[in-house]
Write a structure and sequence with these properties.
Shape of chain A: rod-shaped
CATH topology of the largest domain in chain A: BirA Bifunctional Protein, domain 2
CATH class of the largest domain in chain A: Alpha Beta
Distance between the termini of chain B: 93 Å
Largest interface: A-B, 95 and 91 residues
Radius of gyration of chain B: 44 Å
Distance between the termini of chain A: 84 Å
Number of domains of chain B: 6
Number of helices of chain B: 20
Low-confidence stretches of chain B: none
Number of domains of chain A: 2
Largest sheet of chain B: 7 strands, mixed
Strand content of chain A: 15-25%
Mean pLDDT of chain B: 91
CATH superfamily of the largest domain in chain A: Bira Bifunctional Protein, Domain 2
Structural class of chain B: alpha+beta
Number of strands of chain A: 9
Shape of chain B: elongated
Largest sheet of chain A: 7 strands, mixed
Oligomer: heterodimer
Strand order of the largest sheet of chain A: 1-4-5-9-8-7-6
CATH architecture of the largest domain in chain B: 3-Layer(bba) Sandwich
Helix content of chain A: 40-55%
């Protein structure tokens, strides 16, 4: 049989053997059997020298082409088998739950506070702070709420026990601040106008805990003092911030009210789709007003030169509205199933 | 304060719907908290009279009737038989609905309709049809004196339709605790006149005016001992009154606003209080003790310390000398401004009545009420500040209404002890200031007009201030105790102008500055770090129980007036609160909890409360989230989890030189614990494992690990500045060392020994294994460290590294008696 006549069957045999190799060692064995030093294909190549001289170029060309074809087939099969070898023993079930790392969540009150703070910072407010144990001067007197003022009755206050016995009789008793407004006084006494601050923080009222009350809760206070500040400024800024915090579909309503440390004093109601869903026209959300000239006099600002406005509202209330939470106590129980939801 | 629509309309005209009135009052600062619609019963039902009754052609039962309805006549076809011409009947007019009956979804509306060719224009009603009773003999036959055309509800004596408003009166506006006060606001808003009832006729023309025996001086004297506490005290006397039930209008008016009707005389005093805001008290004149001159002297004095007094509620109270008493010459007869005495109250047989109308100083009334735990409609008004100017008018008004409702004769004149009438306050207003504060221009004459409409009296046009602005001054009426300075007038203008009409302007102005602003962000960074490390943020109660503080009493800040023993102290640490939180979670089957909290704690330092911010971490239960594979998947949190979190936190603050000082003994909180020290002196916090006994007390099953750090200290001492270090240019060489050391040898001791040997080019030493057990003798442990050597300027040769490493290993052998496993 001529050499060339043997070539095609041998090639076909080699290709079949390569395709049949089940794994990489088998493939290497197959390679040796055909292309190795003692391999069948190598043996065929060795016969090339026995051919007549004029037949050699054609036969050499044919053998080289066949060899190249075999090598290509080998490479393809090798990468197929390498891939197969790399696969895990058991195939991965991509529907299995993955291995999760614990990621903590910020408390919802923190998240809401941060959002409110961010909204105010956008319009130039800086965050300020003050003590939670206050005295009567900063919490009431300086805010134009003297001892026998009826407004002082509404805020039932926790007093700090004094070592010397009779706790309530001493002048300027220490108490837990009933509102963040006390920080207004501290900031105005410590820095000259203009002032543009917000004060998030804990406040305390002597209410028994129920679905809407906790003796501890959070407020945020804002104060802006400058020349030529008007009610228009107050309305515009508060509207901008509440739209940012509660969504652009929110509508605000300002109506006259009374706080001893602002004049005029206003209450702010808001409404949006959520409020309508609750079956109400308006929900009260905040109190505000123009800083009372008496307060300015108390901190040594000239009310003829400076005017300003202040507002305050409860953070729990905003968080409850935002997330649909109906019991304020959930915020302070820290059930992890609650915390993980936000 | 409750008020009704119909009552308000007696004093001022307005055309608003009930809803619109609520909206207007709210926007004026008188928030309407509730609206209740009353009556409206039997709408379209009137008293009619049957004029003629004929048979309907073609029907056995039906009759055709001509009925007068007060405005005309109408034809009504009727199936009942029991009525005759001349009878008064209840007629429902077309297009009105019968009351809804049980089981009906929609009320039945009466329409004009043709019956047997005749148009029937309404219906004569039976008891059942009006929901008044069971089916009877036919249509209701009313008494002959029923007034034709009168609304049927009115005929029954039932209240006509009205609307009750529940208003939130702010404490600065005592004048709005009166119907006239509220009407005055409406008058100012509408520009319509306020109609204050005129009662001068009743008091100036008494029946026996010319008879001196019927002059007040013959009846009573007043001795005002305490003009500071009672600046004004007026008295009138009526004789021969007949105490009895109040007329319907009076009874209904009071009942609609939630006041129980008692008797005509008492009801009048309540009515006038609600109408004018002035509390009144009526005494039985004859129960007041008489003096030697045969007439009583009313004494306004302080109570004697320990004096007993029984008020209208029949409780005897012991008074102090701070309390003001109304007395005759022998005994107290009223606790001034708070409550009358049982000994002189109006009885069914009272014939002569003494009316008190006074002004008491707010603070004193407030203190008395508080001290005795006794509040009344009267004290509510006095403590907020009544109108000293209205005392006599209210007394006249009461006299007028008692004469109307209980008869009798008014004794001529009044005692009006008012030794020092105050001059009316005058406040000036710079018109320009209004716009400057409100942000909206309101013409000066309009401002003046608004203030006048509220009852302020134009006093003078002062001219111009030093900046050329127009200034006007006003006399402030006595009922506006809240108006004290210019800005108060501006608020009135803002209210009447409408706050909703003040334009909103976009935010502008100064940029805020405060030192805390940066701290707020630093706190946020800490929160972000800890949540990133897998901890949920908690917010605990500030108020905790003293028992849970686990500190000497003197160091805990206690409340003077706690609500309960559960919350009688301010938390001296965040840890008790976190333990409460763990317990809450465990009780709800949340066994795996990893939390942190940032908050303030309070301690007494040298007798002064001091607050500081802390951060605390609590871990219990499983370390990792649930997973379905892995040998250590159920591993629980241990001390090194806590330590690692604390290390991350300290690294965040860039703090160096931190020592963890192991405590030799358990503490009241911890089984094993360490103090976190900075530079050997400053304690930054502590960490450890909770005492098992305490864990049990909190129902915690797994080990609990707690850490608390002083966050203010971390913020103050931390260094968060960062600077770049070039990445290494030359390769490192690693040498591992495994050694046996005594159990007591700490990791820190190993590091110190190596550090002191100063091996050249040592870059780092890292612990990678701690082992006890096979091949390790008891009382020893095997530690394995990786040493990394690297030079900044060249590749180290083996010889370089070996020389340095030998130095380190020798130091370990010598200083720590370590057996190095080569």
């Amino acid at each position: 049989m001529s050499l060339l006549a043997q070539l095609d069957p041998l090639k076909a045999e080699a290709l079949a053997a390569l395709a049949a190799a089940a794994d990489l060692p088998a493939l290497e064995q197959t390679k040796g059997a055909f292309l190795g030093g003692d391999g069948k294909f190598t043996a065929l190549m060795k016969q090339l020298g026995t051919l007549p001289k004029e037949e050699r170029p054609a036969a050499g060309k044919a053998i080289n082409a066949a060899k190249s074809e075999l090598e290509t087939a080998l490479a393809v099969r090798r990468s197929e088998l390498e891939l197969k070898a790399a696969l895990p023993k058991e195939p991965t079930d991509w529907t299995l739950p993955g291995r999760r790392r614990a990621v903590g969540k910020l408390h919802p009150l923190t998240q809401v506070t941060d959002d409110i703070v961010r909204a105010f910072r956008k319009v130039g407010f800086a965050v300020a702070d003050g003590p939670e144990i206050e005295d009567e001067y900063h919490c009431f007197d300086a805010l134009n709420t003297p001892a026998d003022h009826p407004a002082r009755d509404a805020q039932d206050t926790f007093y700090v026990a004094q070592d010397s016995g009779s706790p309530l009789s001493t002048k300027n008793s220490q108490l837990l601040r009933t509102h963040t407004s006390s920080v207004q006084i501290r900031v105005m006494k410590s820095q000259p106008p203009p002032i543009r601050i917000i004060v998030p923080g804990r406040v305390y009222r002597r209410d028994n805990a129920d679905a809407t009350h906790n003796p501890t809760f959070h407020q945020i206070e804002g104060l802006y003092v400058d020349k030529h500040v008007t009610v228009s400024d107050l309305k515009g800024t508060v509207e901008a911030v509440f739209k940012d915090v509660l969504g652009s579909d929110v509508k605000l309503r300002f109506r006259p009210h009374y706080f001893s440390y602002t004049e005029p004093s206003l209450e702010i109601d808001f409404t949006n789709a959520l409020v309508k869903k609750l079956g109400k026209d308006w929900l009260e959300i905040a109190g505000c007003g123009m800083v009372h000239p008496q307060v300015f006099e108390n901190v040594g600002y000239d009310p003829e030169v400076w005017t300003g406005w202040a507002f305050g509202f409860g953070i729990e209330r905003i968080a409850m509205l935002r997330y649909g939470i109906t019991d304020i106590r959930l915020f302070y129980e820290n059930d992890v199933r609650f915390l993980r939801q936000f | 304060m409750k008020v009704t629509l119909n009552w308000l309309k007696q004093y001022v005209d307005f055309n608003w719907s009930p809803e619109e009135l609520a909206e207007r009052l709210t926007m004026l600062g008188l928030e309407v908290e509730g609206v209740q619609k009353l009556g409206g019963e039997f709408a379209g039902v009137v008293v009619g009279q049957v004029l003629t009754k004929e048979k309907v052609a073609g029907s056995d039962k039906l009759s055709v009737n001509r009925v007068a309805d007060g405005t005309g006549e109408r034809t009504i076809i009727c199936g009942a038989q029991n009525h005759q011409p001349g009878d008064k009947v209840a007629v429902i007019l077309p297009n009105f609905a019968l009351p809804l009956k049980a089981g009906e979804k929609e009320p039945f509306v009466i329409k004009e309709r043709k019956v047997f060719g005749v148009v029937s224009q309404g219906m004569m009603c039976s008891n059942k049809e009006l929901g008044l009773g069971e089916e009877g003999d036919g249509v209701i036959i009313l008494p002959p004196d029923a007034k034709v055309g009168q609304p049927f509800a009115e005929h029954l004596g039932r209240a006509g339709s009205d609307v009750v408003y529940d208003l939130e009166v702010t404490p600065n506006r005592p004048d709005l605790n009166s119907v006239i006060g509220i009407a005055r606001e409406i008058a100012a808003l509408t520009g319509n006149a306020l109609r204050v009832p005129n009662c001068s006729g009743a008091v100036s023309a008494p029946t026996a005016v010319t008879d001196r025996r019927y002059s007040i001086e013959e009846f009573v004297a007043v001795r005002l001992d305490e003009p500071e506490l009672c600046p004004r005290y007026t008295v009138r006397v009526l004789t021969g009154v007949k105490v009895g039930p109040s007329p319907d209008w009076l009874r209904q008016t009071l009942e609609k606003v939630g006041i129980r009707s008692i008797s005509n005389v008492v009801d009048v005093t309540n009515f006038v209080m609600l109408e004018t805001g002035q509390p009144l008290h009526a005494f039985d004149y004859h129960l007041i003790g008489k003096g030697a001159d045969g007439k009583p002297t009313i004494v306004i004095r302080r109570a004697a310390a320990g004096e007993k007094f029984k008020a209208l509620d029949n409780q005897e109270r012991t008074l102090t000398s701070d309390m003001l008493l109304i007395a005759d010459e022998q005994k107290g007869i009223a606790l001034a401004g708070v409550m009358g005495g049982a000994n002189t109250e109006i009885r069914d047989d009272t014939r002569d009545v003494l009316i008190e109308s006074a002004y008491f100083a707010p603070t004193n009334i407030r203190r008395t009420g508080k001290a005795l735990g006794l509040r009344s409609e009267s004290s509510y008004r006095f403590e907020r500040g009544c109108d000293v100017g209205i005392a006599d008018y209210a007394s006249q008004r009461a006299a007028q209404l008692i004469l109307e409702t209980a008869g009798g004769t008014l004794v001529f004149g009044a005692v009006d002890a008012y030794p020092k009438p105050d001059e009316l306050k005058v406040i000036s207003l710079r018109h320009e200031k209004t716009g400057a504060l409100l942000g909206v221009e309101i013409p000066g004459d309009k401002q003046v007009q608004m203030l006048q409409s509220l009852g302020l009296e134009f006093h003078a046009q002062i001219g111009h201030d030093d900046r050329g602005a127009v200034v006007t001054s006003f006399r402030i009426p006595t009922f506006r105790v809240d108006l004290k300075r210019e800005v108060d007038l501006i608020e009135e203008i803002a209210r009447l102008h409408g706050v909703d009409k003040i334009p909103s302007t976009t935010p502008r102005g100064a940029v805020g500055m405060n030192a805390f602003d940066a701290v707020y962000d630093q706190l946020a960074d800490v929160r972000r770090l800890l949540t990133g490390l897998g901890l949920n943020e908690a917010q605990g109660q500030t108020l905790v129980s003293l028992a849970n503080c686990r500190l000497p009493q003197a160091e805990v800040v206690k409340l003077a007036n706690p609500l309960s023993a559960d919350m009688d102290a301010l938390r001296p640490s965040l840890m008790p609160g976190l333990l409460d939180t763990l317990r809450h979670n465990l009780h709800r089957k949340n066994q795996d909890v990893a939390l942190f909290e940032i908050g303030r704690v309070f301690t007494n330092v040298n007798g002064q409360p001091k607050e500081e911010r802390r951060v605390a971490i609590a871990l219990t239960g499983q370390r990792a989230l649930a997973f379905w594979s892995g040998d250590d998947r159920e591993a629980k949190f241990d001390a090194m989890d806590l330590k690692g979190l604390v290390e991350d936190l300290l690294e965040h603050f860039g703090l160096r030189g931190i020592m963890f000082g192991k405590r030799a003994e358990p503490t009241p909180l911890f089984l094993e614990s360490a103090a976190i020290m900075l530079g050997g002196k400053v304690q930054l916090g502590e960490l450890g494992q909770l005492l098992p006994a305490l864990a049990k007390q909190y129902d915690l099953r797994d080990a609990v690990f707690l850490a608390e750090l002083r966050l203010d200290e971390l913020l103050a001492r931390g260094n968060r500045s960062k600077s770049f270090k070039p990445l290494p240019q030359f390769p490192a060489s690693r040498r591992d060392v495994a050694m046996l050391v005594p159990e007591a040898t700490t990791h820190d001791a190993v590091l110190q020994a190596i550090k002191q040997a100063k091996p050249a080019n040592l870059e780092s030493v890292e612990l990678f294994d701690v082992f006890r057990g096979r091949n390790v003798p008891a009382g020893q442990k095997s530690l394995a460290y990786a040493f990394t050597y690297r030079a900044a300027d060249k590749t180290l040769t083996d010889n370089d590294v070996n020389a340095a490493h030998t130095k380190a290993v020798d130091a370990l052998k010598q200083k720590l008696s370590a057996t190095v496993r080569e």
